[in-house]
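DATA SHEET
Item: assembly model
Revision: 1
Owner: S.N.
Input lines:
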Amino acid sequence: MKQFEEQFKDAFDGFEPEVDPSVWANVSNAISSPAPAAAASSGSAAGGFSAVAGWVAAAITIAAGVLIYHFVSPADSTVSKENQPSTTISAPVNESNNTSTEETTTQNSNPVAQQRAGNQSVTELSEVQKPAVAPVAVEESQKVVNSESHATTVSAPEPAKHENAVAPKNTEKAENSSNFAPNPVKNTENQVENAINPVLIASSHCGFAPLSVTFMLNSNLKTDFNFGDGNVAFKTNSITHKYENSGRYTITCEVNGKQLTTEVEVLGQLGTAFSPNGDGINDIFNFGGNDVEKVEVRVYNRFGKTIFTGSGSNPGWDGNLSDGSKAESGTYFYDIFATSVGGTDFKQKGTINLFR
Amino acid sequence: MTDEQLVEGCKLQNPSHQRKLYEKFSRKMFGVCLRYADNREEAEDLLQDSFVKVFQHISSFKMEGSLEGWVRRIVVNTSLEFIRKQKLQWVNIEDADEPAESEVVLDHMNAKELLMIINKLPTGFKAVFNLYAIEGYNHREIGDLLGITESTSKSQYSRAKAALVKSIQEIESATKDIVKE
């Protein structure tokens, strides 16, 4: 009986795995100044994030908060009868955003919304104001994500390219914030809801099959989603859908009589396993294919250590570590940063199984 | 540098002493965190929170027990705090089958492989197993630590052990098959 426990105890006796340097950086930060300590622990209290990701998550939450605030703010101005938009907000608009501003504005000259809103000048004001701001906030949060994980890699997808703003990876965050954001419907009238310009947001616009994409609306409205692959979802504010097959899909939904669309490009599937045993079959795992122009990939082991990096149009891993030794059988994780042949930048995570 | 000097330096918040204390224990303590956490990120969070506590409370450490033991208790308590926050459903299994006296030999399994097996256990099983088999607490103490009864701790433990023995035996027989081929 005792023997079993003792064997375990002995096995762990000299177990001293490598610790990521970011942990010390965070600890040292936390003990030298009280303010970052609070931020760091709130990040980890959110649960499941790595220390660094905790920081990023905090930053994203703030960015998302800003985003949501701006979505809601036009409504507030209607209510408070102050017809002045807060001028500070529209300041950081750059050229690439102007395109999307125009696009969205034209899209928005929706007769229904204007009629219902009663006060036209307010509606126009808020519509012009809102899109000018939204892409900026989204872009900021993208920068946070990208600069954290791979400073050198592909640039963030331009919001102007798609009809709608892109919110990579942090959709959940945005979702959470939107739940906490005050719901304008509760204390005001329907016209306020109409004054908010509905936007359909996708967590990703491109990636290898099977690709899971989260779609959400910027307000608390619920509607039916058509995923463009024959599947639909009913009466929801946000939904994650998995595309199994490659193809170009148009996602549509209707809010207040207005049709919202976005596109997702799903690329041919990468494998999930390989067997680098020299038998000529499946000896190399390729991270590219015909659908991508260029790929950068990092492979991690179970303990988060980077064991392989590659780049090019179709980088392949032979299952060897950097010192030439063979990686053990097991599951490995990868991060991909790629540009599709269609010119869309994307990043994706996945796992591969190595068999020997 | 002795532990005593380390502690004195940390009490004065000397950054290089703090760094040295971290260097000295972080890897071993990370090993502890990995056993309680569900994944590496969680373990890093636990380790980070633990060391922040260590440095915040170092002034209350009297050189009566070992420094490592004290740090380790903070790490284990931080891990348990995290587990308690998850509000686990503890199911009391009265007649958990005691695993047949296992002929399991762990000689050829290293800590990483065992960690992989332990990590497959549900969080509650994992905590009880860690506390009893590796940290060496008894079931009454574990009950207090996790806010469960002694008998729940016992039944959780025997279930955890049965599950572990089973996966180890599975791995062993799988390995044998491969060797035969």
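QC remark: Helices of chain B lie at 3-11, 15-36, 40-57, 67-85, 111-119, 123-134, 139-146, 150-180.
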